[in-house]
């Protein structure tokens, strides 16, 4: 939009425990942007809107995508390298590697510090907002070297053979379990040593990113109906045998040398992780490129603090974006950055920026975090069709779901396209 900006990134001068590099957009929890289906899935619709708006992150994701069935997974190193190189080469962007630890009184600012907001900045935000920072914990899934997976036991298949190419239909490594193996695994999981919380921390987990041991504590069958569900899969080695549970691994890099264990975020101690995960058939000799971990996620009570322009009500020269606003997920976080950037640029240029329509995926999220959610019970939220206004005349329930979702996405695409076209600057 022609506005010169300074991008402050504290890494690598100030590190976090979860990041390995100083690159922008380094993905640490997963390498997936989830479903890319823009007709039947809300996050896929968000992908579509970001692409239509010329979003850098979607462009980089598609340049370095990996086979993942119907999902959009990326080679995380190449992805972050492209984002970093693009930003450094942009004539209107200057990158400054320093930590910002106070909320400035003047100038236009966007804070998109994410789940690992530094302690100093977190304290400054708390002072400015007059509230205590809220927190939950993100747990990181382990990564396995592909060559250490026993493919005489495991097989390649996407659930329900989903995908348009052979690579997509064979995007996941599947490790089957019998009932006895599953029960033994649950016993070991529950008995394993776990990471202790630091003083002052509370275990307020976001349900979409629960550690597997927390899921297991909620019931012995919980994992079998969650990340270990066996449906839609046929054992290539023993097609006549139905697995009681299945552990899936998804490719984590373009070379196919690394696979992450899908949905296996954990707060087990490292030694316990290796021991418990090697109980999984096919992973008896697994070598781990990275074991799981856990970290705090700080976020605002946005319904009380942010206006519809994502500005801090008490200091409107400051906007917030990304996961700190109370959205959850890489895509949702990036989409809030795209929206906040356009809003800030329009204000600086003195241009009129129409309000993002609530019926778009972006608009549904913004409405939720800036007033649609109940402030007293506000928790991080993924984009989902439950945030969308109903379409009149459509059947409710599971049977009408396909038509209903298509109506949501058709309506959103029309509204988003009109919003982009109505602006005084090109999309």
TrEMBL record:
It comes from the Bacteria. The keyword Nucleus does not apply. One of its GO terms (molecular function) is tRNA (uracil(54)-C5)-methyltransferase activity, 5,10-methylenetetrahydrofolate-dependent. Gene3D superfamilies: FAD/NAD(P)-binding domain. It catalyses: uridine(54) in tRNA + (6R)-5,10-methylene-5,6,7,8-tetrahydrofolate + NADH + H(+) = 5-methyluridine(54) in tRNA + (6S)-5,6,7,8-tetrahydrofolate + NAD(+); uridine(54) in tRNA + (6R)-5,10-methylene-5,6,7,8-tetrahydrofolate + NADPH + H(+) = 5-methyluridine(54) in tRNA + (6S)-5,6,7,8-tetrahydrofolate + NADP(+). Transmembrane segments: none annotated. Its main location: cytoplasm. InterPro entries: FAD/NAD-bd_sf, MnmG-rel, MnmG-rel_CS, MnmG_N, TrmFO. Residues 1-351 form the MnmG N-terminal domain. Keywords: Cytoplasm, FAD, Flavoprotein, Methyltransferase, NAD, NADP, Transferase, tRNA processing. Catalyzes the folate-dependent formation of 5-methyl-uridine at position 54 (M-5-U54) in all tRNAs. NAD-binding protein involved in the addition of a carboxymethylaminomethyl (cmnm) group at the wobble position (U34) of certain tRNAs, forming tRNA-cmnm(5)s(2)U34. Belongs to the MnmG family. TrmFO subfamily. This is Methylenetetrahydrofolate--tRNA-(uracil-5-)-methyltransferase TrmFO. It comes from Salipiger profundus. The gene is trmFO.
């Amino acid at each position: 939009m022609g506005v010169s900006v300074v991008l402050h990134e504290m890494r690598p001068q100030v590190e976090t425990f979860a990041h390995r590099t100083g690159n922008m957009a380094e993905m640490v929890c997963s390498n997936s942007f989830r479903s890319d289906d823009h007709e039947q899935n809300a996050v896929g619709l968000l992908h579509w809107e970001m692409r239509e708006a010329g979003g850098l992150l979607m462009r980089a994701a598609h340049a370095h995508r990996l086979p993942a069935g119907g999902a959009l997974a990326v080679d995380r190193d190449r992805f972050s390298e492209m984002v970093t190189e693009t930003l450094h080469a942009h004539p209107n962007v200057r990158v400054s590697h320093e930590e910002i630890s106070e909320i400035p009184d003047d100038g236009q600012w966007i804070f998109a510090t994410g789940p690992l907001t530094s302690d100093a900045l977190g304290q400054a935000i708390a002072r400015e907002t007059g509230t205590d920072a809220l927190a939950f914990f993100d747990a990181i899934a382990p990564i396995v070297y592909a060559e250490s997976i026993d493919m005489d036991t495991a097989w390649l298949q996407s659930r329900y053979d989903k995908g348009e190419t052979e690579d997509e239909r064979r995007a996941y490594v599947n490790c089957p379990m019998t009932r006895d193996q599953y029960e033994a695994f649950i016993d070991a999981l529950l008995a394993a040593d776990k990471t202790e919380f630091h003083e002052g921390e509370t275990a307020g987990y976001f349900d979409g990113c629960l550690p597997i041991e927390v899921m297991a504590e909620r019931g012995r069958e919980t994992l079998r109906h969650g990340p270990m569900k066996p449906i839609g899969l046929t054992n290539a080695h023993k097609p006549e045998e139905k697995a009681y549970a299945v552990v899936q691994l998804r490719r984590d890099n373009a070379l196919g040398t690394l696979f992450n264990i899908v949905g296996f975020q954990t707060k087990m101690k490292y030694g316990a992780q290796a021991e418990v995960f090697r109980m999984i058939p096919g992973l008896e000799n697994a070598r781990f490129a990275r074991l799981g971990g856990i970290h705090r996620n700080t976020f605002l009570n946005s319904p009380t603090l942010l206006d519809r322009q994502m500005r801090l009500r008490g200091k409107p020269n400051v906007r917030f974006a990304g996961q700190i606003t109370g959205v959850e997920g890489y895509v949702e976080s990036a989409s809030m950055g795209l929206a906040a950037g356009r809003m800030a640029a329009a204000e600086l240029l003195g241009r009129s920026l129409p309000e993002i329509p609530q019926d778009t995926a972006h608009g549904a999220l913004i409405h939720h975090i800036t007033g649609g959610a109940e402030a007293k019970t506000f928790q991080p939220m993924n984009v989902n069709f439950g945030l969308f206004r109903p379409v009149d005349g459509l059947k409710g329930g599971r049977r009408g779901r396909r038509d209903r979702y298509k109506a949501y996405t058709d309506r959103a695409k029309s509204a988003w396209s009109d919003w982009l076209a109505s602006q005084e600057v090109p999309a």
